[in-house]
């Protein structure tokens, strides 16, 4: 087990700078989840850590060792991909053992490691089967097993559950969390799934355009996003953003007036107000008003998508509230729910 340290990592493909100077310290035993829009460089970062790509600038350290010039097989990391290629002509047992045989481990050692991992992943009864006789979830467990038998210092996961159906994903998510607790290994995990990120991560790292935007425990990022990008990226539906100016004790925007939080610095005149849809209720006499464009009912409650003078916003409504497309409604923020950002969204103000 080991820390993974990235210092000033840069990587270009041709003329395109893809990773733009990333500093990140993943601590031993952490489950760090990387999220960000498609193309922001997450997979590239994993491949740089694994040694499948070379950095153009900066340093990759695994434990005490600078690994920039260390070939992938000597970095002691294991990568599990979205498309897990098992050897079709080999049984599960042979698939699990293959990497260890290549490393010329004694056969008794190989056999005991394979049995142990098969037990851990509930594959013991499937050891003599070929991959084509396994379900998607079982195949994915074999792919993970192949990484685990190697006992690497660091696990790298690139969207390992994205090919599974919803039920299997939920099951595998639980298994991954248990595995992490049991192995205590350093894990770096790329996903598009916010639920995976929020539930598996000890810390989440949010990237945009090859730049690390913020890293921290999932709830810290959710409740105290560092900038507009992070605020808008985490949470569903996305946070609402409204331009406003300060007017005495109020924040005034197009068609609305909100009470200004007292902790906003007096020098600030223009802000971007952020309000999560969960913190904005369809309710009588609210300070924002508009027309309902669409309604999503989730059973107990739902979301109304409302066009206001200040722009489109999403707001929650409770079971008892009647909301239909075309209705004029007013919206009311719950107490102390306002996020405030600089006008350009680059920085949170509270
Ligand atoms: P996704 O979430 O869609 O998997 P990502 O954040 O993992 O995206 P990367 O796969 O790291 O993004 O790719 C980042 C950018 O680098 C993309 O624009 C991609 O086209 C480009 N890229 C990646 N690998 C190469 C390569 N070998 N040659 C040229 N361009 C590449």
Automatic annotation (TrEMBL):
<dbReference type="Pfam" id="PF08402">
    <property type="entry name" value="TOBE_2"/>
</dbReference>
<dbReference type="GO" id="GO:0140359">
    <property type="term" value="F:ABC-type transporter activity"/>
</dbReference>
<keyword id="KW-0813">Transport</keyword>
<feature type="domain" description="ABC transporter">
    <location>
        <begin position="4"/>
        <end position="234"/>
    </location>
</feature>
<dbReference type="GO" id="GO:0008643">
    <property type="term" value="P:carbohydrate transport"/>
</dbReference>
<dbReference type="InterPro" id="IPR015855">
    <property type="entry name" value="ABC_transpr_MalK-like"/>
</dbReference>
<keyword id="KW-0067">ATP-binding</keyword>
<dbReference type="InterPro" id="IPR012340">
    <property type="entry name" value="NA-bd_OB-fold"/>
</dbReference>
<dbReference type="InterPro" id="IPR003439">
    <property type="entry name" value="ABC_transporter-like_ATP-bd"/>
</dbReference>
<dbReference type="Pfam" id="PF00005">
    <property type="entry name" value="ABC_tran"/>
</dbReference>
<dbReference type="InterPro" id="IPR047641">
    <property type="entry name" value="ABC_transpr_MalK/UgpC-like"/>
</dbReference>
<dbReference type="InterPro" id="IPR013611">
    <property type="entry name" value="Transp-assoc_OB_typ2"/>
</dbReference>
<dbReference type="GO" id="GO:0055052">
    <property type="term" value="C:ATP-binding cassette (ABC) transporter complex, substrate-binding subunit-containing"/>
</dbReference>
<dbReference type="InterPro" id="IPR027417">
    <property type="entry name" value="P-loop_NTPase"/>
</dbReference>
<dbReference type="GO" id="GO:0016887">
    <property type="term" value="F:ATP hydrolysis activity"/>
</dbReference>
<dbReference type="InterPro" id="IPR017871">
    <property type="entry name" value="ABC_transporter-like_CS"/>
</dbReference>
<protein>
    <submittedName>
        <fullName>ABC transporter</fullName>
    </submittedName>
</protein>
<dbReference type="InterPro" id="IPR008995">
    <property type="entry name" value="Mo/tungstate-bd_C_term_dom"/>
</dbReference>
<dbReference type="InterPro" id="IPR003593">
    <property type="entry name" value="AAA+_ATPase"/>
</dbReference>
<dbReference type="GO" id="GO:0005524">
    <property type="term" value="F:ATP binding"/>
</dbReference>
<keyword id="KW-0547">Nucleotide-binding</keyword>
């Amino acid at each position: 087990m080991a820390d993974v340290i990235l210092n000033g990592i840069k990587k270009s493909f041709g003329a395109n700078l893809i990773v733009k100077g990333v500093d990140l310290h993943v601590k031993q035993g952490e489950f760090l989840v990387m999220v960000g829009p498609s193309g922001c460089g997450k997979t590239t970062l994993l491949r740089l850590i694994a040694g499948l790509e070379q950095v153009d600038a900066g340093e990759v350290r695994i434990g005490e060792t600078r690994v920039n010039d260390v070939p992938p097989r000597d970095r002691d990391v294991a990568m599990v991909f979205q498309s897990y290629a098992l050897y079709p002509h080999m049984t599960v047992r042979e698939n699990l053992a293959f990497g260890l045989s290549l490393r010329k481990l004694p056969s008794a050692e190989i056999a005991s490691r394979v049995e142990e991992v098969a037990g851990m992943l509930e594959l013991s009864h499937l050891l003599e089967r070929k991959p084509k006789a396994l379900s998607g979830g079982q195949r994915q467990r074999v792919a993970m097993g192949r990484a685990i038998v190697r006992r690497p210092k660091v696990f790298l996961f690139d969207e390992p559950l994205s090919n599974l159906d919803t039920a299997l994903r939920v099951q595998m998510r639980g298994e991954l969390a248990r595995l992490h607790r049991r192995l205590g290994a350093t894990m770096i995990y790329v996903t598009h799934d916010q639920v995976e990120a929020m539930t598996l991560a000890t810390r989440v790292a949010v990237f945009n355009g090859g730049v690390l935007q913020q890293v921290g425990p999932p709830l810290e990022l959710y409740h105290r996003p560092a900038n507009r990008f992070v605020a808008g990226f985490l949470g569903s539906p996305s946070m609402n953003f409204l331009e406003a100016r300060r007017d005495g004790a109020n924040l005034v925007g197009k068609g609305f007036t909100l009470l200004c939080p007292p902790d906003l610095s007096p020098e600030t005149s223009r802000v971007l107000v952020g309000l999560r849809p969960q913190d904005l209720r369809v309710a009588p006499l609210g300070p924002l008003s508009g027309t309902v464009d669409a309604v999503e009912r989730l059973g107990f409650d739902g979301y109304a998508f409302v066009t206001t003078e200040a722009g489109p916003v999403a707001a929650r409504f409770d079971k008892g509230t009647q909301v239909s497309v075309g209705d004029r409604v007013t919206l009311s923020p719950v107490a102390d729910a306002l996020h405030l950002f600089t006008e350009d969204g680059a920085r949170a103000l509270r």
